[in-house]
Amino acid sequence: GPLRRAMRQSAIACSEMIQFFHQVQRYIALNVIEGAWGEFIESTSGRSGEIDIDKWNESHTKYVNIIHNVVCGGSGPGFQRNLAGIFNTALQFIAVVRELYSEQALGLRRSDSRSSTKENHETLSERFQRIMGGSKPGSSTPPADSAAKQAERVNTIVLRFKDQVKDIMRVLSHNTTSDLQFLVVTVDFNGAYAGSN
Fold first, then answer.
1. Where does residue 78 rank: exposed (0-12), middle (13-18), buried (19+ CB within 10 A)?
2. CB 75, CB 179: distance < 8 Å
3. What kind and span of H or E run contains 109?
4. At what angle do helices 143-174 and 2-27 cross, to 10 degrees?
5. CB 56 within 8 A of CB 44
6. How confident is the model at residue 197 (pLDDT cuts 50, 70, 90)?
């Protein structure tokens, strides 16, 4: 049914989100920060063993600026805005998936499968809700409607995530002065977001 499809779609989307965040973090750590650190070490290594404090200060400022630009937005406002949007979408995704896998949703799945076998027993959580003054049996949203709504919420968030990744890829591919210009290749290594160009 729709809940089963939503659960499958959420598992795939979760893997895509993890892959995206892992690749962004890895790229920034290895390509930007490590690269900037290597330049800093090279520029501060005195050939004669002496370190010029002015040169060291200049090199350190350059190192900090490179990292600051990537992390805090100097690489372009589009990247930071899009990345913040992707983080917000991921947080919404977590909330929707928690709801999808909640006891209520799993109860809807059980009641949906029971309704096909014509059994009509309350789940423990339904009984507890009724005892605590909640809804009466059969008075809640029908399982099919609720399942369809949850499936639609999952689908909407997954599509938003994919659109946001395409947007960030487009922003990065047009920014040739950034330390992040090759992140497009790293994130879109298999062409899944090829439509972003």
1. middle
2. yes
3. helix 103-117
4. 20
5. yes
6. very low
Q: Say if residues 139 and 154 touch (Cβ distance below 8 Å).
A: no
SS3 179: coil
pLDDT attached to residue 31: 82
The answer to whether 178 and 73 are in contact (CB under 8 A) is no
What does the block give as tokens for 111?
């009641």
End-to-end CA distance of the chain: 36
C-beta neighbour count of 165 within 10 angstroms: 21
CA–CA gap between residue 37 and residue 114 (Å, rounded):
61
pLDDT in tens, 94-103: 999 988 888 6
DSSP label of 195: G
In sequence order, what are the residues at sequence separation of 6 or more whose Cβ sits closer than 8 angstroms to the Cβ of residue 85? 164
Q: Say if residues 79 and 171 touch (Cβ distance below 8 Å).
A: yes
| Tokens 């090829």 belong to residue | 194
Instruction: Identify which of 161, 181, 173 has the alpha carbon closest to the alpha carbon of residue 69.
Output: 181
